[in-house]
Every structure is written in C-alpha cells, then in structure tokens.
Amino acid sequence: MAANDNHCTDHAEPAAIQIEQLPFAAQFAIWAARAWVTALKLDQPFSAVSHGTFERFDLDEAENDLDALFSIVAHSASRQIDIRCLKCSHVSPDEMLFQQAVAAVQGEDSLAAYEALRAWLPPAAARTGLRALTSFANRLSQRELRLSKPLSSAPRSHAHMRADLPSVALH
C-alpha cells in the first residue's frame, strides 16, 4: 500500500479499536509513529512526512525524540512491529502498546514503559529507547497532550508480580 492512499482496507479486524475512538493525544502519538514508519518506507526524512505538524504544536524536540526512539526500534527490534499506514482506521496491538508506553511515562511508571519497550526490543536497546520515549512523552505532556493508560491491556509491572510472590525473611 502506498503511503498516500486515501483508504486502507488491509486491517479490517472486527474487534479492532478504531483510531477515532481514542482521545486526541493517543491519536496524535499513533499518527506520529505511523508517520515515522511511512517516512522509513518511502526513504524520506521524517519531517518531510510529518509536514510541520510537530512545529505547529510547538513540539519540534518531540519530533527528534520520536525519531530517535523509532530509529532504535528499526535497528534493534526483536520481532516485526505492526505499525499501520497513515490512513488505517484500525489500531494495531503494537500501536496500542506504544500509546500505553507513552501513557506509562506520563503516569510516572517508567517500569511499565520499559516493559512495553521490551515487547519490541532487547534489554540494552529498551534502556536506550526509554530515554527517548521519556523525553517524547514528557514533551507531549508539557503541551497538554496527556494519554491515559487503559487498565485492562496495560503491561504487567514487576511490582504487581512481586505482590504475587510469597513473603520470605532472609537473614
């Protein structure tokens, strides 16, 4: 599918979340990821595909942060990542994971954000990517683009797993 197609019919899962159902901040984060992947596929600079959108929102540095994050993902991903085309109305599980990672950072849960990145990246790349993700998420937050983390599909944190373990005294 070409990046400038007017309608996407490739991802019509009946149970999939429609991008229009998400709050604007989540739509923006997913659009940004899609724009970055489109730029990669078209072998163009990210700024050429984003058409000054980040600048209009006074998010120039966030554009650089997203570019850094997805450069790490593109070079280090441990599996294929499903980021859809710009026109797709359905949100992929990986796009939901990305917006959850942004929401986790904004909710000051860097462990959950790291775990989300670990779904895509090996540990060292996830640690490096977390810095770019944190900067991106904080810049969005500063411009009032705050994402909320859905409880049902949030990555399971280590704190929750520790609560499942029995208590043992060590001396």
Order of strands across the widest beta sheet? Answer: 1-2
Report low-confidence residues grouped into runs of 5 or more: 1-7, 151-171
Number of strands: 2
Radius of gyration over C-alpha positions, nearest whole angstrom:
17 Å
- Main beta sheet strand tally, sense and closure: 2 strands, antiparallel
Could you tell me the mean pLDDT? 85
Provide tags for this entry.
171 residues; 56% helix; globular; disordered C terminus; mainly alpha; 2 strands
Explained architecture:
The protein is mostly helical and 171 residues long. It has helices spanning 24-42, 46-50, 53-56, 60-76, 93-106, 110-118, 123-142, 158-164, and strands at residues 17-18, 90-91. It has a two-stranded antiparallel ribbon. The protein starts with 16 loop residues before the first strand and ends in a 7-residue tail after the last helix.
